[in-house]
UniProtKB/TrEMBL annotation:
<dbReference type="InterPro" id="IPR039425">
    <property type="entry name" value="RNA_pol_sigma-70-like"/>
</dbReference>
<comment type="similarity">
    <text>Belongs to the sigma-70 factor family. ECF subfamily.</text>
</comment>
<dbReference type="InterPro" id="IPR036388">
    <property type="entry name" value="WH-like_DNA-bd_sf"/>
</dbReference>
<keyword id="KW-0731">Sigma factor</keyword>
<protein>
    <submittedName>
        <fullName>SigE family RNA polymerase sigma factor</fullName>
    </submittedName>
</protein>
<feature type="domain" description="RNA polymerase sigma factor 70 region 4 type 2">
    <location>
        <begin position="106"/>
        <end position="157"/>
    </location>
</feature>
<dbReference type="InterPro" id="IPR007627">
    <property type="entry name" value="RNA_pol_sigma70_r2"/>
</dbReference>
<dbReference type="Pfam" id="PF04542">
    <property type="entry name" value="Sigma70_r2"/>
</dbReference>
<dbReference type="InterPro" id="IPR014284">
    <property type="entry name" value="RNA_pol_sigma-70_dom"/>
</dbReference>
<dbReference type="InterPro" id="IPR013324">
    <property type="entry name" value="RNA_pol_sigma_r3/r4-like"/>
</dbReference>
<keyword id="KW-0238">DNA-binding</keyword>
<dbReference type="InterPro" id="IPR013249">
    <property type="entry name" value="RNA_pol_sigma70_r4_t2"/>
</dbReference>
<dbReference type="InterPro" id="IPR013325">
    <property type="entry name" value="RNA_pol_sigma_r2"/>
</dbReference>
<keyword id="KW-0805">Transcription regulation</keyword>
<dbReference type="Pfam" id="PF08281">
    <property type="entry name" value="Sigma70_r4_2"/>
</dbReference>
<dbReference type="InterPro" id="IPR014325">
    <property type="entry name" value="RNA_pol_sigma-E_actinobac"/>
</dbReference>
<feature type="domain" description="RNA polymerase sigma-70 region 2">
    <location>
        <begin position="18"/>
        <end position="79"/>
    </location>
</feature>
Length: 170
């Protein structure tokens, strides 16, 4: 028996309310900008709503939502430069403020320097704790590609994080 539209909307609203902070953190790790992360989450939530009937039947709804988010990020990266809007730096909203430590900032900077597919592979493997096969499914590629992208991403992170910090940079 089909759920009523109101029941579907209530179910969708409950899911999105509960999982938005998590989706936002994943989006931030991918794009390194809170405003852009909000845009990515909004796009993913909109796509989820349009496909909610199928999404709500998925075995792993979080995995489905994460896949929509990551694919939206990668599609945005493939777009031309004219599709990107750069917002001038502002003070972050008070609700977003978090206690950042120097090592967190170093890691975020190093992560931001990775190419988009390497960054996505590293975030999915180590932040989202997905297996190689699960990551390959999300990225729409082979397990070998995930392994090579992850390996290259980790090598680049190690090189960046092992560089001595010049006096006065921090």
């Amino acid at each position: 028996m089909e759920k009523s539209r109101s029941a579907r909307d209530d179910e969708f609203t409950a899911y999105v309310t509960a999982r938005t902070p998590w989706l936002r953190r994943v989006a931030y790790l991918l794009c390194q900008d809170w405003h852009r992360a909000d845009d990515l989450v909004q796009t993913a939530v909109t796509r989820l709503y349009v496909n909610w009937r199928r999404a709500s039947r998925a075995d792993n709804l979080d995995g489905y939502a994460r896949t929509v988010l990551v694919r939206g990020y990668l599609a945005e990266q493939r777009g031309g430069w004219w599709k990107r809007v750069r917002v001038t730096p502002e003070t972050p909203d008070g609700t977003v403020a978090a206690a950042d430590h120097a090592s967190d900032l170093d890691l975020r900077s190093a992560l931001a320097a990775l190419p988009p597919r390497q960054r996505a592979a590293v975030v999915l493997r180590f932040y989202c704790d997905l297996s190689v096969e699960q990551t390959a499914s999300v990225l729409g590629c082979t397990a070998g590609t995930v392994k090579s992208q992850t390996s290259r991403g980790l090598d680049a992170l190690r090189r960046t994080l092992e560089q001595p910090i010049a006096k006065g940079e921090r």
